[in-house]
Structure prediction request, 540 residues.
Amino acid sequence: MARNTNLKNALNGKTPQEHLVQANHIPEPNTVNREGHEAYELSEELRLLSMLNTLKLQHQYYRTNQEQVQELKQLIDSIAPKNPYFVAQCVVYSRALGEGMRTINNVAAAMLAPYVAKETWGKRFYNLWNRKANSGGMIYRADDMRDVIDAFYLMNNKTATNAMKKGFSEALQALNSYQLLKYKSSLKDVINVVHPNPELSKAEVEIDGEKVKTITAIKKGLSVSADTWETANSEAGQDVAKAVKEGKITKDEATEILAEAKSENWKDLLAENKLGILAAIRNLRNILLNNPEKETINNLCKLLTNKKLIIDGKIMPYQLELANTVLTNEFDDANSRKLSKALLKGFEISIPNFAEILTGNNLVIIDMSGSMSTNIYAQNSRTHYKRSCMDTACLLGMTIAKATNADVIRFGSDAEYVSYNPNSDVFSLANEIQKDMGGTSLAEAFCCAADAGRKYDRIFIFSDNECNSGYQKNAYQEYIRKTKANPYIYSCDLAAYGTAPVGGGKVRYYYGYGLSYFQDISACEFKPNQHIDKVRKIVI
Prediction:
């Protein structure tokens, strides 16, 4: 006699429920993080890519800068013997198309040198990135060459490999006079090491009525300069100092005259569109200190809100935030407030508008644990300012929240929903939600969402991924079962420690705090290993 006939018929009549299938297929954690708690292991390729797009080689909560360099070398030494071209693609992608981190990618390029030496594409790797063709080598800015040579010498006590010499020579020969002269102090040593052929360069300058190859002029130390803010203000300083020495003016008069000259230089450079947007961002303090005219401020605001320049110049949101911090910390006048508004607008321009793309219900989860307070120091002019992982997480998280009307949960040892005013600017929102919440239990955040019974289409997690309490895999699984949700998870790693807190088919890993991963989410949502796919498409 057949048993359980009714049961079998009833079960056969049911179709798999997507959220239950998803919950049942969440993998078990397969490694531990730096605190020894459960986590998901990332492939060596993803670990390398995350480091190249996140780290500034500064001290972190769980890792020193020396340990970061050691880990980077271990990864390169593990991957490069099998696939040096892929490592080269990672460096080129990260420097030119990813987060644009400079130092760590130049160090990686130096570490890769032994594996590139005999490759036919080696000299192309140490060559210029072609921004129009979206292909080429790892030299994104002319002075990257000097950084690579310095790093290679420090590691090997040798000046440069043949691949470097050939690639850098071709790069120098392809640069125009402005590019060569702008970085001449760095490039003079590079020229002496790699010996480019000036006759193969089209770059020329006029000295005493005669045309001279720019490379030759730099090598010989001739008095030639690019029309940059550094040159203009340096010449002004020299002229004023000379006048003081000759007894033409007093030191007090010199201060006033120099300020007027610098103010005029800023005004002219902006009016002539000769001040780059990154230079403008970094010099807001200097411009304001020299009593700028109304025209200067207006042109500066236009520059800071120019969408094309922000995107093409790879301006990162954190750079605009840092500039705003300088203004709010040191100035409080009509000019600084006007510039602050422009910076806020520029910040929002630097991140695509999610409202039309990320429809549905979104949740932002922000880590407020102790390790998130680790400071990342940046320098603006003569003053140092600090930004922490928490500062970054809150700013990015609240930008998404405001853009998509998302819910926000902050977590540490416990978790809670956060109320916020959507009419406030993102800088204010980011400051208002910060709170010291102790440990790191992402599980509490998932429990909080499950208890509220809120079903989300997407969940963004901003964390350093060092979960040290709770069982986030079980909590994530229970959230899916309880709410019948099947969300995509965007896990944004702000420290590149090497593990992830959640896993599964609908989890995507991001890194850093630029704008490239926002573009990736909006443009090609939900393709696994999208980063690796894009890296492999790089043509060197």
The longest strand covers residues 362-367.
